[in-house]
């Protein structure tokens, strides 16, 4: 029943595709190739490889591999650093008073602005790209973790104190789990930001990846290829978000349950 | 076992405790009753070392309470904020036992035994939010029991459950106290309850609170929700505590009539 209603809501997708197809065919503009042409190019470029490699072509591996590696390594590094720092700051009101103005300033800086700076400071390629991703993605993780660690229920902390929990138990069994819903919200926001910043980093400071391919195809007037990159990025963003939600639903099952009953 | 001498506490200029002195002997179940806002919770939090009182002395087993004592447990009124919702009931009960030097299996066994004692033998793998309020409070009690504290503090432990559950939990506490020789200080605003569960009832005055009376109940340990409440001694004590809580003799007539009506 749920599946049927979910599918029922999807009817707009094929309708939109058909409209897109009809309008672009009628317009005959080179900048706006019809979706069928885009899909054909995507298939040719990326998904016509051997079955043993899940149909992925050499180009697909060359484009997606470095991009996904950048995206995930940037996101994971930031997650570890951001959560650790956020817990430390959130648990110490004094530290949080000191660093709060800096954090507010830092997050107000649009991350792409720093690409030229990172390019001057670091090597073109991976270091500058990772720096761009990390800098842009760290804010939602950091702020959400601080908030989560700061708003641990006082009575949960008192319970930990009464029963003599060690510092490690307090951290791993009380503070981290109660901050986890907010941390996950930050991580999810960060994941979609990481995708955007990955593309930006590859456009400005890259020699490979989907972002670089996007720039290259645009400069070579290969509009169906360029649109293929755009569609691929959209689909990638959708898949990443869905996968993340799936994990979140498992890890935070207790949170949903607790919220429904109270 | 627990000795409180001249305990004073103020929040800013507002004096809550005005010199409370009381003592609890080993194995006793003492209920502390008083009008709402009279500082009962402040008293309990001072004993638990959660706040540092402005003045006076608290000793537990002869040693002054400065930080949270090692062998003290609390059952809070608000079970939903005391149990950890990200852990099963058994893990909630087992977690505090880590510091007792028990290994995983021993902790698990002790937790299951404690859950069994509170009548939740089959609920170990349930999460708190899958349980009713009464069941959650039973888990809190099991957690305290498994911890084997020398003193168990209960802060309005039955304040958030319905009447039937409340009676069940009162009997559970009496049972536990009798079987484990555990020392309990129970705070309540409910006059009837203070007499029903207590070996002794300590009545506090309005804030700044002092001890208005310290009554020995003397109804024995075997109590029954209906029969005990019908005893003349129970009715007399309840009326006396009621008058004291309302501040001396002002409530005398109303309390007597209400007693008559109940009879």
TrEMBL record, chain B:
Pfam families in the cross-refs: ABC_tran
PROSITE patterns with a match to the protein in the record: ABC_TRANSPORTER_1, ABC_TRANSPORTER_2
Keywords, ordered alphabetically: ATP-binding, Nucleotide-binding, Transport
InterPro entries named in the record: AAA+_ATPase, ABC_transporter-like_ATP-bd, ABC_transporter-like_CS, ABC_transporter_ATP-bind, P-loop_NTPase
Gene3D superfamilies, per the entry: P-loop containing nucleotide triphosphate hydrolases
Entries under CDD domains matching the protein: ABC_NrtD_SsuB_transporters
Domain of life: Bacteria
Keyword ATP-binding: yes
ABC transporter domain: residues covered: 2-231
GO MF terms, alphabetically ordered: ATP binding
SMART domains named among the record's database cross-references: AAA
UniProt-listed PANTHER family: ALIPHATIC SULFONATES IMPORT ATP-BINDING PROTEIN SSUB (PTHR42788:SF13), TAURINE IMPORT ATP-BINDING PROTEIN-RELATED (PTHR42788)
Name of the protein: ABC transporter ATP-binding protein
Organism the protein comes from: Microtetraspora fusca
Organism ancestry: Bacteria, Bacillati, Actinomycetota, Actinomycetes, Streptosporangiales
